[in-house]
Amino acid sequence: MTAIHTARDPRFPALGVAVDVVVFTVRDGQLEVLLTRRPDEEPFPGAWSLPGGFVRPDESADDAAARELAEKAGVEDVFLEQLYTFSAPDRDPRSRVVAVAYYALVSADKAALGARADGRTRAPQWFRVQAESEEHAQAFLPGQPPVTLAFDHDEILRTAVQRIRGKLEYVPIGFQLLPPHFTLTELQSVYEAVLGHPVDKRNFRSKIQKSGLVRESDAVKKGPHRPAKLFEFTQRTF
Questions:
Q1: Where on the phi/psi map is residue 28: left (φ > 0), alpha (ψ -120 to 50), or beta?
Q2: What DSSP letter does each residue of 104-142 carry, written as one string?
Q3: Contact between 151 and 92 (Cβ < 8 Å)
Q4: Cα 153 to chain center, whole Å?
Q5: Residue 173 carries which DSSP code?
Q6: Element (DSSP H or E) covering residue 59
Q7: Where are the alpha helices (DSSP H) in the chain?
Q8: Which terminal Cβ of the chain has fewer Cβ within 10 Å, N or C?
Q9: Domains, the chain, ordered by start
Q10: Rounded distance between C-alpha atoms, residue 155 and residue 149, angstroms
Q11: 201-211 and 184-195 helices, crossing angle to 10°
Q12: Measured between alpha carbons, how far is 92 from 177 in angstroms, rounded to an integer?
C-alpha cells in the first residue's frame, strides 16, 4: 500500500510515536535484558537504554520495533508482543512522544548479538535483571551497582517483568527460552530465573505436569548418569 503524506494541519498538535523493546533471555539461571548505549549527546548522553526509536511515517509500530531491534542490537527474527503504551507528558525532554513498548523472549543459544548498524552507539550488552518485588526491577552487570536507564525505561522494564511473571501460570512462555526438548530441571531453572527466587522441586514438577503445558517426548538426554527424560511444550505459541 502506498503511503500518502500531507502537510501537517496546524490545528492539531504535533505528536511523536516511538517504540521501545524489552528483550529477555535466561543464561546460567539468570534473567537478562538487552540494553544499548545512547550516543554522547542530549538527552541522556551515554546512558544505557532499551533498544528503540521513532516510528517512520511509512511504517507500523510493529515494523518499527522489528527494524529498531535489528538496527540497534543486531537481533532479528524474534517474536514481539506489545506490552503497554507509555504516554507521560514529560517522558521525553525533546518533545511530546508516546512510546509503544514491546517485549521478546529469546533462548540463550540465540542470544549472540549481531553487529550494530548505528555507528553512533556502543555495542549492545546483556544485563542481569534484579527484581525482588513487583514494584522493583533493575538492570546490572555482575559486581557493579544497578544502572539508571534513560527516559522511562526503568518503568518499562519493570512492567515487562511483571507481564512475563504473570503469564507463567497459564501460558508456555518458556518455549521461547528453551530448545524444543528440555528436562524439567531446565524448565524449573527458567521459571526460577523469571520469578527471581527458588521454587520447590516436587511441587513444581507436580504442578507443571498437571497444567497441560508440557508433555513427555520420545527423546532422552544422555550424560554420565542415568538418561533424563526430555519434555516438550504441547503448544509453541502464545
A1: left
A2: EE--GGG-PPPPPS-TTSPPPEEEEEEEEETTEEEEE-T
A3: yes
A4: 12
A5: G
A6: none
A7: 61-73, 153-167, 184-195, 201-211
A8: N
A9: 16-167 (3.90.79.10), 179-233 (1.10.10.10)
A10: 9
A11: 100
A12: 32
- How far, CA to CA in Å, does 2 sit from each of 58, 59, 66, 86? 8, 11, 20, 29
CA nearest neighbour of 102 among 23, 168, 172, 15: 23
What residues contact residue 39 under an 8 Å CB cut-off, 6+ apart? Answer: 45, 46, 120, 121
C-alpha to C-alpha distance for 141 and 58, rounded to whole angstroms: 38
Residue 97 dihedral angles phi and psi, to the nearest 5°: -135, 130
Per-residue pLDDT of the chain (238 residues; tens, 9 = 90+): 445 555 655 655 678 999 999 999 999 999 999 999 999 999 999 999 999 999 999 999 999 999 999 998 888 888 899 999 999 999 999 999 999 999 999 987 777 664 444 444 457 899 999 987 767 899 999 999 999 999 999 999 999 999 999 988 778 788 889 888 999 999 999 999 999 999 999 999 998 888 888 999 998 887 777 788 999 988 755 4
Question: pTM for this structure?
Answer: 0.87
| Separation CA 69–CA 63 (nearest Å) | 10
Q: Compute the distance between CA of residue 72 and CA of residue 117 in angstroms, rounded to an integer.
A: 6
